[in-house]
Every structure is written in C-alpha cells, then in structure tokens.
C-alpha cells in the first residue's frame, strides 16, 4: 500500500495547467488540461468544486459536503477520490 | 496534433472514456477546435502537415471572423482550442484572439515553434488568459535543429522554453522525430530534463503534406525505432513523477491503424486560414470534398449537415475488411487521408492495417526508405523544405 498523500489537515489544490469548470453543453463539471478533458461524475464534480472554490483542508471539505448532502457518510469516498485524483496528477497537496 | 481530442481518458470520477456519442445515432460535439490562423511560418520543416500547395491560399480570416468561429464552436460544446498554423505568432491579433477565446471558457493551447516569441509576449499571453504553450523543437542540437528547421532558431527556442516555464505555464515540449533525428533520443530527453520540462511529446512524423513528399528521407528504420523506444521507456521509468514522456510508435510499424481523429466528424474540427472547415487538417487533399467555408455557412450547419463532415461519420461507409472487422469501433478503419494517398480510395481500410489487402504499400514504402537510407549523403535525394518557393514549384502559382 502506498502512503496516502492527504490527511485531515492537508490542503488539496489543482495541479498547474488544470482548470475546473461547469460545461453547459455536457451538463457536467469537467477538468481541462493541455489538449485534453475529463468529464466528471457528480460526486467528483462536487469534491473538486470545494477544492477550487477556495483553499481549505480535507476536513473542511468533508464538513462542507456533509452540510450540503444531509450529513451523508462520505469521508472515505472523499479520501479515496483525492488519492486517485493525485495519482492522475490532477491535484497536489499544497 | 493527431492525438488531439484523444486524451479523454477513462479516469476515476470521469463519466466514461468517450464523448457520450452513440455511434450512428447521434452526432458528437466538436470538442476540439483547431484554429490554423495562418500558413505563414518562419520555419521550413520538411515534415510539415500543411498542404504542399499552401502558397495558393492567400486570404486569411479577419479577427472578427475568428471570434465568431470560436463563439459558434463553443456553443456546440467545444472546450479545447488550439492556436496553430503555420506559426500562429505571425498573426498580430493573437493576444486579442486568446483573450476572447479564454473569456468564452475555452482551454486555450498555443502550438508554436517559439520563433517570433519574446519574453514580453509570453507575459502578455498569460495576462490574456492563455492556458498552455507547447514549444516544438526540431532536434536536440543546434546544428541539426537549424538544418531541419531551415532557419537559425535553436538558441531562441531554448530561451523561449525557459520563459514559458518562468511565467508559470506547464512546460510542454514537442519533438517531431524521423530518421534524421531519432538517433538523438537520449540527448533529446536530456535537453528536456535540463529545461525542467513537465511534459515531453515525442511525436513521430506522420506522412501527410510535406512529410509525404519527403517520406523516403524521413521514414525511420525499424532498428532505429527499437533503440529509440527502449531509451524512451528507460527515461519514462527514471522520470516517473517528474516529467511525463509520451512516446508513440509510427503507424507504419504498427499492425493496426490509429483511431484517426477519434473518428471522422466525431470530436475534431479544423478551420484553415481561409475559413475552410475540415474534419482533420489533411482532409483538403481528399477528392470529392465540398470544402464548406465559415463565410458561407454556420459552424452548426457545417458540423451537422455538410456532406464533408457526414462522409465518413459512424461506420456505415466502410468497405471490407473493415465492415466485418471486430475492431472497427476501436480504430474506425484508420485514417481516410492515408487510405486515399496510398490506395487512391479514401473509403478503403488504412493500409497500415495488416488485414488490408493494400498493406504491401506500407512494407514497400519502408523498403524504399531503407534503400534511400543506405545511400551516401551525396547520392541522397535532398529534402524538399516547406516554403512558398517550393510550394509554387510543386503546384504552380
């Protein structure tokens, strides 16, 4: 098992060259990078929206998402997504 | 640029690998807009993908026409915009075009040789919102670089690559490889490392336009490729997490064709300097094209209704062996332009495919290039450089 990159106090930020935005024509959030695009599912979109709206810790992101989604138990999902996004070089820990 | 639009990889959190197009039922979105702003270029690379008759095309779209193209394509769902050419820096309105496109929400890519760039321009583009600059090199040494480019540009390119990085852009370097520089693979990658590149694209020459004309002089030999590939893989391992290296085998040495443009009229839209809309940057050379122009039709009409964009859309146009092939949805039968150039029929299977009855044309081309490679320097056919004089010589005025 690889050592996880993110803990409760780390601050995830988008990697240089990446841009996150809503695409009306796709009806979804997307991640744009040099000559490419990833269409995000709604969970990934909501997490990256938190990451890009303002700098905050993973703990704060989870708190905001819980408030928005009726206290859903989403801690593991957030951590798992952040690690995968880091492996893909979309985000880094500030 | 052929990889354009193909980076929609299936990744965690993505909704899937494709654009949501159900082949044959709905039409995809032109996600990738390639704006060939001009055919003017200070370089003369003999592998240029521009048409060899480019000197006949004199009228360029105005600033307003380009902005209208961007707006229309954006409304149809385009997200990636490549400023290309020729050398896009030759357009005096480039900053304005970047600013407008970025304001519409495009991810803006500048694909440049770096010639004509200055440090203040890099900063100006940044301020205008440019997302990404890709600087192309012709080789890793000054002598060979300048010989291939037909101009004295190497030192300036190095400076500009550094300026790109200093302005906070990811540094994306592109080396177009062929027989005459592929043996430099180690020093190419060492150069990229010394410049702190984030991405290196080892783009293999594709045989269209000028490159097709110079194929005997450019096509690498199998031994060269194997050596270059081993080096590229070694550097990929060493540079993991630091520099991403993209290495693609030339399709002449593959058994299956490339999924050209991710399918005809599927995600890719090229607008040429004079406003002609093409499903790929080589398609102008195909016979029977209507060549719709943005001056006469809207981008939506061109994308959805024009005969050109529907000509090889989906799978119904295919002949055997593609029609009954279980890989047809993976590679779409390969490249229409390559099929036409080599067989005379754009609806045939790309001869790169070993299932194609025309595959011998590829093996013969490799043999032919091999004979040329064995010749002494003095006996070799000289490279024909991409410049207006040669364009006129090949096609008349």
Structure in words:
The complex is a heterodimer of chains A (94) and B (397). With 94 residues, chain A is of the alpha+beta class. Chain A has a single domain, classed as Arc Repressor Mutant, subunit A, CATH 1.10.10.1150. Helix content of chain A is 38%, strand content 22%. Chain A contains three helices and five strands. Chain A has helices at residues 42-53, 58-68, 75-87; strands at 12-14, 19-23, 28-33, 36-39, 91-93. Chain A is globular, with a radius of gyration of 13 Å. The mean pLDDT of chain A is 91. Chain B has 397 residues and is of the alpha/beta class. The two termini of chain B are 29 Å apart. Chain B has 15 helices and nine strands. Classes of the chains: A alpha+beta (94), B alpha/beta (397). Chains A and B meet through strand 2, strand 3, strand 4, helix 1 and helix 3 of A and loops of B.
Please supply descriptive tags for the structure shown above.
heterodimer, A: 94 residues, alpha+beta, Arc Repressor Mutant, subunit A, three-stranded antiparallel beta sheet, two-stranded antiparallel ribbon, 3 helices, B: 397 residues, alpha/beta, nine-stranded mixed beta sheet, 9 strands, disordered N terminus
Please, what is the average pLDDT of chain B? 87
Tell me roughly what share of residues is in helical segments of chain B: 25-40%
User: How much helix, percentage-wise, in residues of chain A?
Assistant: 25-40%
Q: What is the class of chain A in the CATH system?
A: Mainly Alpha
- Describe the largest sheet of chain B: 9 strands, mixed
- Radius of gyration of chain B, in angstroms, nearest whole number: 20 Å
> What is the N-to-C succession of helices and strands of chain B?
EHEHEHEHHEHEHHHEEEHHHHHH
Largest sheet of chain A: 3 strands, antiparallel
Strand order of the largest sheet of chain B: 7-6-5-4-3-2-1-8-9
> What distance separates the N and C termini of chain A?
23 Å
Q: What is the SS-derived class of chain A?
A: alpha+beta
Outline type of chain A: globular
Could you tell me the strand content of chain B as a percent range? 5-15%
Helix run count of chain A: 3
Query: Could you name the ranges of chain B where pLDDT drops below 50 across 5 or more consecutive residues?
Result: 1-25
Spans of at least 5 consecutive residues with low confidence of chain A? none
Count of runs of 4 or more consecutive helical residues of chain B: 15
CATH homologous superfamily label of chain A: Coenzyme PQQ synthesis protein D (PqqD)
Count structural domains of chain A.
1
Query: How many individual β-strands of chain B?
Result: 9
